[in-house]
Amino acid sequence: MPGAKTIAAAPQVPPAGVAYRRALLAASVLASLAAVGSAGASAGDDPAVESTLPAPDSRWPQLLGVQYTFIYQWQTALKSPYQGEFSLDPAGDQQPTHTIGFYSGWAPLDWGQLYLDVEKFMGAGVSGGTGLGGLANGDVIRSGSAQLKKEFYIARLYARFMLPLGSDSARVERGQDQIAGTEAAHRLELKVGRLSVADDFDHNRYAGAARTQFMNWSLWQNTAWDYAANTRGYTDGFVLGLINPQWSLKYGLYRVTTVANGQTLDTLSNARGQNLELTLSPAASGTVVRLLAFLNSARLGDYAQAVAIGAANGSVPNIAADAQYGRHKVGTGFNLEQPLADEGNTGVFMRLGWNDARTEDFMFTEVDRVVSFGGQLSGVRWRRSEDCFGLGFVAEGLSDPHHTYLAAGGSGFLLGDGRLNYGHEQILEAYYRAQWSWTLGPAPVRLQLSPDFQYVDNPGFNRHRGPVRFYAVRLHLEY
């Protein structure tokens, strides 16, 4: 685990042009304003006012979490009259995967925090982690991961600044990338550095964590949202949020990769991903609605042009060969979580997602339209209060230019059967999570064991292939 000296170092934000300089300037302004506000409040003698000031429980560097996840997954054989470069293995497959992570933070100031996360993964998804829009193991890296070294790497390294906009405070508990203490209930917040975009957008209480909930990508995320990320799932950028107890508005600007599903990030002057999300939560334990919009600008290929060029040349279309800077992808998402009972531990969820898909899917997965829904049932109903059962359904599709490109023999970075009889990819997933907890020092240790089943019809959006089944057992340990 990195020591305090490493954590204390300022986040290494790459020089990426005007947007980053503006973000850092905004951070400086926030810090100055918060320092003035904190000094003014501390000067008072009223203990009631002092008690409402936001502050961390400790100003020392802290270990906020450790996790280890092991998954063993089996893919069955499937009907396969033909196959291409990125098809599911027709004979079936089985693969173990491991991930380990250490998560630390430091709050030297009431209004400023630093976070450093280090992770490592081992193994690969069944069939090389390709052949599906909704991949079956969300805890491993996408196609291309075989070329990445199986070594520890910095996942997150960022600074967080908070400017209170009122006197109300709320208690927050220790967790991964969360320092325990009190925070202003109404605040302006800035995060800048190495981030995961999914940490701040498209959350869902019942379908948002592949290590503890649904494993399929199309259930723990909106797969039509092509969010900025390198192959490991991280990028550089900033997110600015206006946070309130009943609503929030967040904007994020991030670097995107130089090539589809690549590891190297481009400069912001060349390419960028932008996200805007409004979250509405009118009741503390009630309905939560999230409305998302995104715009990507990058060196993208155009599906229709790639098909036209291939037809003119008598060759297989190649989306990468048509790539040009200055092209865009836009999309929207809708995200609902609805608690029903058991203090919210029993509830339902739904997501809708769409992107225009004239240009290639570039960073997350190859899905252009998605609807997913399902629910979680608390184990308190059978006297296992820490257990739960989850059931989810997905139907997802491709744009006309996208599936025409695949039918002509083209390949993306996850899909490519060589031919295509297009149909919606349909997914069912069910899991049971058994949990045991023990107290160790300031936080509990949790051990989870989860059998998981997935059924996929029209894998890779191809009616000629499948159906296919996935069976898995997942062991998750966290502190």
Description:
The protein is mainly beta and 479 residues long. It has a single domain (4-52, 71-478), classed as Porin. The protein has six helices and 19 strands. The chain has helices at residues 4-8, 18-42, 47-51, 217-220, 303-313, 400-407, and strands at 55-56, 62-75, 93-109, 112-123, 153-164, 169-172, 181-184, 187-195, 235-243, 247-254, 272-280, 288-300, 324-341, 346-355, 369-378, 388-397, 425-440, 443-457, 468-478. It has a 16-stranded antiparallel beta barrel with strand order 2-3-4-5-8-9-10-11-12-13-14-15-16-17-18-19. Strands 1-7-6 form a three-stranded antiparallel beta sheet, with no helix packed on it. It is globular, with a radius of gyration of 23 Å.
Q: What attributes does this structure have?
A:
479 residues; mainly beta; Porin; 16-stranded antiparallel β-barrel; three-stranded antiparallel sheet; disordered N terminus
Give the CA-based shape: globular
Got a strand count?
19
Roughly what percent helix? 10-25%
Strand content: 35-45%
Structural class: mainly beta
* CATH level-1 class: Mainly Beta
N-end to C-end Cα span: 14 Å
Q: What number of structural domains do the residues give? A: 1
- DSSP helix count? 6
Q: Overall pLDDT, averaged?
A: 88
Order of helices and strands: HHHEEEEEEEEHEEEEHEEEEHEEE
**Gyration radius, in Å:** 23 Å
List the helices and strands and how they pair.
Elements: H1 4-8, H2 18-42, H3 47-51, E1 55-56, E2 62-75, E3 93-109, E4 112-123, E5 153-164, E6 169-172, E7 181-184, E8 187-195, H4 217-220, E9 235-243, E10 247-254, E11 272-280, E12 288-300, H5 303-313, E13 324-341, E14 346-355, E15 369-378, E16 388-397, H6 400-407, E17 425-440, E18 443-457, E19 468-478
Antiparallel strand pairs: 1-7, 2-3, 2-19, 3-4, 4-5, 5-8, 6-7, 8-9, 9-10, 10-11, 11-12, 12-13, 13-14, 14-15, 15-16, 16-17, 17-18, 18-19
